[in-house]
Amino acid sequence: MAGSTPVSLSADAAAPAAAQPRKSRPTTPAGEAWRRFRHHRLAVASAVILLALFAIVALGPFLWPVPINEIDFSAKLQGPSWAHPLGTDDLGQDLLARLIYGGRISLAVGLAAMIVAVVVGILVGAISGMASGRVDAVLMWVTDLFLSLPLLPLLLLLTYLFRDSVKSVLGPEGGAFVLIVVVIGGLRWMQVARLVRAQFLSLREKEFVEAARALGASKPRLVLHHILPNALGPVIVAGTIDVAAAIIAESTLSFLGLGFPSDIPTWGSVLRDAKDYLDIAPHWVLFPGAAIFLAVITINFIGDGLRDALDPRRVL
Amino acid sequence: MAEPLLDIQGLKTWFKTDDGLVRAVDGVDLRIDRGETVGVVGESGCGKTVTARSVLKLIDMPPGRFEAGRILWQGRDLIPLDDAEMNKIRSREIAIIFQEPMTSLNPVYSVGEQIAEVIELHQNLSRKQALVGAADMLKLVNIPNPERRVHDYPHQFSGGMRQRVMIAMALSCQPKLLIADEPTTALDVTIQAQILELMQEMKERFGMAIMLITHAMGVVAETAQRVVVMYAGKVVEEAPVGALFGDPRHPYTQGLIRSIPRVDRSAGQQARLESIPGTVPSLLDPPPGCRFAARCKYAMEICTQAIPPLKEVAPGHRVACVL
Amino acid sequence: MSEEEALLSVRDLKKHFAVSGGIFSREVDRVYAVDGVSFDIAAGETLGLVGESGCGKSTTGRCILRLIEPSSGEVWFKGTDVRKMGGTALRALRRDMQIIFQDPYASLNPRLTVGAIVGEALTIHNLAKSRREHEERVVQLLETVGLQPDHLRRFPHEFSGGQRQRIGIARALAVEPKLIVCDEPVSALDVSIQAQVINLLEDLQEKFGLTYLFIAHDLSVVEHISTRIAVMYLGRVVEIAPSRELYDTPLHPYSEALLSAVPIPDPTVKRQRIMLQGDVPNPIRPPSGCHFHTRCPIAKPDCATRVPELRESKPGHWVSCHYRG
After folding, report:
1. What are the extents of the domains in chain C?
2. Torsion over CA: B168, B186, C266, B321 (sign)
3. Residues near A65 by Cβ (< 8 Å), separated by ≥ 6?
4. What is chain A's mean pLDDT, rounded?
5. Contact status of A12 with chain B (Cβ, < 8 Å)
6. What is the pLDDT of residue A313?
7. Cβ–Cβ of B264/C267 closer than 8 Å?
């Protein structure tokens, strides 16, 4: 057995201080991760920007109480001014108010879709990783099947097919939200499932899991106490990237007119409305585009930072 | 005295890490003469591996850097040399074998190609000649069917056989010094015995010197002529092998020798192992004075104030202890 | 030893792992990891189990604990067959038998505090009535293995290898077991730390009347700590003898070679070394007859066809060789 040879003896070149009890530094694994995350400057800056974006979106309507649908043809297609800091659209509606409102929807869709994807992914991955054998084979077959589906056409088809029935139950806005979140989340869980399964397969064999089994720990306890917490690092990273992907997916749907009802602004739908006025009102395209860009790129940088901070090799 | 083959003087190799400066090697003097086997022993983190890698300048810089000292190879300091000049010395004059024979060979090339590459680089031979040379080397290290196995890939060899391949590769340019970094730690005892015997045989044949880095006192006792004991980045004792085991002077060496269970003694003679209390100090901010003081049963006040220098207590026997 | 006085009796234990391959994942080969192992351990003694990589010693230890399900054979613990135990009985068994692992880095959950790791058994088996009792017991366990009470709230990464091994030992002691399987508990530790842990294990044995199955590849450590030693080669026990007797008069040629290969930290000792040729054969297709015949210096033609029985050559000294003992 390869495991019967000393392991720590080669460590002195790679990590000269690895065996020392560490002093004067955060002691919890979370503290360690935070310490490493702070070293990633781009990620920290991104986190600050993203938090600001969330704050604007959450508090904006109180600070900028302009209605999103106040039509004023005398002020249509205006560039940025004191009255309309981000300008107006073809109906003279205030863009800042519309983007703040749209940001709420876009970010909420991103987060909710990520949660759906991560929850489904963890469930499938965990069951697959613990069960092995036939159950594992079937679940992984399903995962591969989903992975091979072309995402965008399917998104379009599903929203087109179910839009009306869901809307009749949950109302136009709520219905669109649930449908979009479920469809995006339901088509993005596969990566998480694969990650979780791989983590489970390797963690299952770890000696600390074996030790817990030897103590008589039940299967749920093994999973919830010992395996899952150690598998979460990569999942969190994948989850952040999923938020960005979901925001883009929602924008795409809205852009194609299959998202929320056309009178409700989202970053994607504002962009779609603006596309015909590219040459006369460039600000109209610029601001929603910039908002999407900023949200997605900061989330991706944060994902990078988390990847470094939660690297299991450095935690274990 | 003849000029030593390798003469390390006051070497300090430090590493910059997130947590601060790690003084992995902190003022090491080490001399190796032609054709002798010097054992460098110590526990993990004592700096023995970093010392060995410093000689070949295999330390990543940054985070590592040479803070002070000289590494004299046949009188010439290696520290200022650039990579191109070092490459003329690596393999051709100083070769190294590592602990993990599993990871030190490239899995996508056959072992013959890997040995041939070394031969080609350093001896100006054609590929074909080099491959013949590779087969000869495999034969030399007692690998059965060398002509056939030269085309095999690393995964087709067992751990012991891979270490033989590593030795063949290291010796293919007939170096004057072979650095063996824990060459048998990953191997079983019966295979370890085979490899140690092979190294002995190769040494007699090529007359090279060996720097044997290990944590196993038994391996050193059976192979080395001279032993250097390291602790927390420093040399604490240096002696001919007989004197070191027969009359160890440094409390750390004494503790190390007494803490090993002995197969050749009955349990009655050694009812309880003597252990060294505590753990190795951090190399981040090592304590002032003797680094062993905190674990030493003879420690006095003076031990925690100044670092004791190595002083000669008998011919060739030097100890860094105030006692 | 008769079966009544043994705390643990292993009889003809086998564990074969299937190697699957091909498009339909059929079983194409089998690894004979443990291939008919029998031994007894008396209460309070330490049985050393030695052998080289791949000899099946760790698998044997895990089969006894049923961390790995044995393929066949019997494991009797205090008069009950461990292999036939169901849920409740198996849970009770976990309080009697524990394990200490080799790798102090992989054997502790990095996301739990030391207190949570050591106290986990108390939670699982409801061994503490109140939170205070729980904490008191954890502190007591930490002190038993030589750690400080304030280590309770720290995480494993803050400890050195030796200290982590102590945490692992405290975890095993929490259920007050009778038998502890020590799977290479000191192999990953530095020499000076090894001695600390070995001494601790010996002290605990005396204090709590523990019985150890001590698995290791380092023969000098095993000789030091064991009452009796079983030598394994390719899934089979080739020799069992009282510790000192094995070292003084090994009977099986493999034990003899293994012992002579151990380097002795004394340059004045010169010994005749028996050099074994080649490597340990692949356990997927172990040699026929006596597994050792391909490397045995005294092998005769019939060693390749006849499987030697483990028989008692002298009282308490068992060997499985046609030509020795």
Report:
1. 6-109+178-191+206-319
2. positive
3. none
4. 80
5. yes
6. 52
7. no
A298, two tokens: 């900061």
Residue type (1 letter), A294:
L
pLDDT band, residue A86 (cuts 50/70/90): confident
CA distances from A110 to A267, B91, B234, B257, C94 (A): 12, 57, 56, 63, 46
Query: Which residues in A114-143 are b (16+ Cβ under 10 Å) and which e?
Result: bbbbbebbbebbbbbbbeeeeebeebbeeb
Cβ of B185 within 8 Å of Cβ of A9? The answer is yes
Test mutation, B44, B102, B190, chain C, max C CBs within 10 A: B190
Q: Does B189 touch chain C (CB under 8 A)?
A: yes
Query: How far from A125 is each of A50, A128, A197, C78, CA to CA, in Å?
Result: 30, 5, 4, 41
Neighbours of chain C (3+ CB pairs under 8 A): A, B
Cβ of residue C64 closer than 8 Å to a chain A Cβ: no
Interface of A with C (CB under 8 A): 1-9, 19-22, 27-29, 32, 206-208, 210-218, 221, 225-226, 229-230, 315-316
Kindly compute the dihedral angle of the four CA atoms of residues C289, C294, C300, C306, in this order, to the nearest 10 degrees: 0
User: What is the pLDDT at residue C283?
Assistant: 82
ipTM of this predicted structure? 0.85
Q: H-helix or E-strand containing C220?
A: helix C219-225
Q: State the best of B17, B44, B50, B67 to mutate against chain A, taking most chain A CBs within 10 Å.
A: B44
- Dist. CA C111–CA C129, nearest whole Å: 25
Chain C CB contacts of A213 under 8 Å are 67
Chain C contact present for B263, CB below 8 A: yes
Instruction: Kindly report the backbone phi and psi dihedral angles of residue B157, in degrees, each rounded to the nearest multiple of 5, phi listed first.
Output: -110, 150
Name which of A266-280, B131-145, C52-66 the model is least confident about. Answer: A266-280
- In tens, the pLDDT along B31-50 reads 999 989 999 999 888 889 99
Cα–Cα distance, A134 to A143 (Å, whole number): 14
Write the DSSP string, chain A: -GGGS--GGGHHHH-TTTTSPP-SS--SHHHHHHHHHHT-HHHHHHHHHHHHHHHHHHHHHHHS---TT---GGGTT--S-SSSTT-B-TT--BHHHHHHHHHHHHHHHHHHHHHHHHHHHHHHHHHHHHH-HHHHHHHHHHHHHHHTS-HHHHHHHHHHHHHHHHHHHH-HHHHHHHHHHHHHHHTS-HHHHHHHHHHHHHHHTSHHHHHHHHHT--HHHIIIIIIHHHHHHHHHHHHHHHHHHHHHHHHHHHHTT-SS-TTS--HHHHHHHHGGGTTT-HHHHHHHHHHHHHHHHHHHHHHHHHHHHT-HHHH-
Cβ distance C267 to B158 less than 8 Å, yes or no, reads: no
C84 three-state secondary structure? helix
Residue among C190, C217, C280, C294 with most chain B CBs within 10 A, to mutate: C190
C150 touches chain A (CB under 8 A): no
Mind listing the domains of chain A with CATH numbers?
105-288 (1.10.3720.10)
Which residues of chain B have a CB within 8 Å of the CB of C279?
Answer: 158-161, 191
Q: Residue A169 is encoded by which pair of tokens?
A: 């139950």
Closest listed residue to residue A183, CA positions, set A130, A208, A235, A146: A146
Residue C185 confidence (pLDDT): 93
CATH class name, domain C6-109+178-191+206-319: alpha beta
**Which of A4, A212, A218 lies nearest to residue C58, judging by beta carbons?**
A4
Which residues in chain C have Cβ-Cβ distances shorter than 8 Å to A141? none
pLDDT 10s digits, C107-134? 999 889 999 999 999 999 999 889 999 9
Tell me whether residues C155 and A217 touch, CB distance under 8 A: no
In the DSSP assignment, the letter for residue C86 is -
